[in-house]
């Protein structure tokens, strides 16, 4: 799943560590999300989106997610 996390983080001049602390995860989790090696839980996706004042859909691209 593609995300805009890195783009948003850089726009806000945040380090991975600063964003991680703000949403309650490790820097490694932010790195993994940015490299698309990890998919955020719904709760984490909500925290990240809320932190940037956006909806989840504005941060995470669900176009490649398979439908039922």
TrEMBL record:
Keywords per UniProt: DNA-binding
Pfam families: HTH_3
PROSITE patterns hit by this protein: HTH_CROC1 (PS50943)
InterPro entries (alphabetical): Cro/C1-type_HTH, Lambda_DNA-bd_dom_sf
Mitochondrion keyword on record: no
Sequence ranges assigned to domain HTH cro/C1-type in this UniProt record: 5-59
Keyword Mitochondrion assigned: no
PANTHER family documented for this protein: DNA-BIDING PHAGE PROTEIN, TRACRIPTIONAL REGULATORY PROTEIN-RELATED-RELATED
Protein name per the record: Helix-turn-helix transcriptional regulator
Source species: Paenibacillus puldeungensis
């Amino acid at each position: 799943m593609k995300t805009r996390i890195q783009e948003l983080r850089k726009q806000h001049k945040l380090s991975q560590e600063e964003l991680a602390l703000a949403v309650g995860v490790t820097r490694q989790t932010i790195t993994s999300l940015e490299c698309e090696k990890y998919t955020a839980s719904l709760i984490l996706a909500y925290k990240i989106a809320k932190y940037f004042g956006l909806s989840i859909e504005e941060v995470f691209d669900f176009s490649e997610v398979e439908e039922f």
